[in-house]
Amino acid sequence: xxxxxxxxxxxxxxxxxxxxxxxxxxxxxxxxxxxxxxxxxxxxxxxxxxxxxxxxxxxxxxxxxxxxxxxxxxxxxxxxxxxxxxxxxxxxxxxxxxxxxxxxxxxxxxxxxxxxxxxxxxxxxxxxxxxxxxxxxxxxxxxxxxxxxxxxxxxxxxxxxxx
Length: 163
Description:
This protein is 16% helix and 34% strand. It is of the alpha+beta class and 163 residues long. Helix 1 (2-12) packs antiparallel against helix 2 (147-161). The chain is elongated, with a radius of gyration of 19 Å.
């Protein structure tokens, strides 16, 4: 019975060996923005095994983090359309490198610059950047169930049931 329980536990935790799954969307229509908060996952794509580029490397690699960037565009470079000023921008995607590593925090609020990030050439924003590392975590700020704890609970329930 213990062997069966261990096999089930292993099968339940297999997704830890895959890439991270992240929601991917970006504000492209300011009048009907499906990427904004409150976020509706039905309107947006959850990319399973999300892959991203990395600075200094060619190709796509398994993502280590999901990111949500939200804010208001406060300035644009000369070659960017000035009609973007004061517009709300939302971006959800996956990344390889922790862009928040220097702050030792998972989110940061303030002024920041997006340059050559996806389709954005160069804008200055006032808003929030949030980085996380669990599947679909760039959806909204909700309570996430700890999968390891859930797997242990299933394991002990199976052992108790087969006693």
